Structures are given as C-alpha cells and as structure tokens.
Amino acid sequence: MKLTRDTATPIPGTRFIDPKVLARVSSLELVAKTVVSGFISGLHRAPYLGLSSEFAEHRPYMPGDDVRRIDWRVYGRTDRLFVREYQAETNANLTLVLDVSRSMEFSSAGISKLEYGRYLAASLGYLSLQQRDRVGLITFDEGVVTWVPPSVKHFDRVLHELDTARAERAGNFAKPLATVARTLGRRGIVALISDLYVEPKILLDSLAELRYRGHDVLVFHILDPDEVELPGTQARQFQDMESGIRIPVVHDQMRETYANAVHAHMETLHRRLGEHRIDYRFFDTSEPLDHALFEYLSERQHRMQAR
User: Fold this and answer.
1) Cα–Cα dist 126/107, whole Å
2) What is the mean pLDDT of residues 109-135?
C-alpha cells in the first residue's frame, strides 16, 4: 500500500483554499473560521471530532432498541438478546499537541510545516469549540514549551500561543509525551501534529500511556512535498535541520531510494498506529487544509458510527 494525498471527490459547490492563501490572512482565528466554514457549508450534517464512546455494560434487548447494538456474540453463547450500552460523553477535552522542533520550519515554497500545523491546530480547536468541547494546547520540542489547560473560555490564549510558537530547538518525543500523559486528567482527545521524524517504536512507546489512560489519540503527519519526493535539482548535499549535519549524496541515485524509504516509514506508522487504534492522517503542506480536514473528519465519523 502506498500512502498518498487523498484525491476523493470534493464537496459539490465548494472551492478549496490554497494553503498559500491562508498564509496571507493575518488573524489565526479568521484562518480557523475560514477553513472550518469551507467544508461545513457543503454538508447536511457537519463532521465532528467527537470522543469515541466507551463500552459500559450489556442489558437485555427490549422492543424498540436499535438492532445494530445487539451483541450477537453474546446471543451465540446465551441464546438471549443483549444490547451494548455505552458511557455518554457529551463534552470532551481536546488537547492539541504541536511539534515546534527546528525541522518544522522547513518550507520548499510558500508555507512551512509549522505554519500548516498552526492552521490545522487552530481549525481543530475552533471546530471543537463549536461543539462546546474544552480545548487546550501543548507545544513541545525537546521538552514541553507551552501548556494551556483545556477550557471553553481560553481559546484566545490557545490562538495566541499558536501564533507566537517558534521552531528553535531539536526535537524529542519520549520526554514531552510522557509529561503529557502524566498531566492530562479526564479522558479526552489528544491530537499530535508533527513531521514525525522519529522511529515508529519510540513514537508508539510514547503514545502508549495516553492510550492506556483511555484517551483517543489522533496523529497528523505533516511533510513538505520536497520531503516526500526529492526535487529534480542538482543538489549534492542535504542538511539535517535538527542537528545541522550536512550529508553528501549522489542525487540521481538517491531520489528513488529516498522516496521508497519515506513511503515505507509512512506505511509503517499507519499500520502500527492503527494496530493500537490510533488515528493516522498524512498531510503535505501543498494540500488544501479544508478539503483534507473534511475527508479525515468524515472518515472518522463513519468509523465511530460503525462501532
């Protein structure tokens, strides 16, 4: 399986927004409103970022119950009909976790990964706020940089911290995500936004405690198009943006090898995270954010309704 950008049919009547246009909007709140309204306007029912319902217990089936909630495995064992009951979660905590390590500053043209991540975080936060969910923010590099606890009243502070975030230091996943897991209280949604320059095992180990504590974990993988496939230039060396190390290469021989390695990394992340019921969605910074977010939220809503 090769992971690529989603090319699903757009919402009828909707024109999606080039990320470089969003970069010219001075207000991050206006960016978020523009992105969210861009896909909500084309729907009869807006997709949502709801918390997955948690199974509570079985009870005997009664006439009028939704037959889709019958547990047929229990019926096979007992010859009696039971339905699954779930804990009601009307409002959720959404904690946005944005990587602000140095590599997030990379941009081949127009918009950096950090800028795109800001827009994505602000849009997810704005959408959740419309559902009366509490929204918080954590930014991290080699440690936690900023922390805004989830609230329905402090979204302006979330936007301010997003707007002023700078990518200045090298990154680390284990230490800051361990801090996040220890500090977050009630069960909620944790949305990690990063370029994921990390070994899959380290990432999974870092997210395991969050899953153990019952959080829904969403991973948004952001890359620049030139990081997915090397451009056709005559470059003879590459520089690691985290360490500054320069690596000599023979460009023509490296392009295919590099592209295969990147796609293999993405496929491994997608598979391993999925095995732990962690959502994974890849974005590149040239992809219209409103379209990408609509596709992801629609898929998530469909999965949640099918459970």
Assistant:
1) 25
2) 91
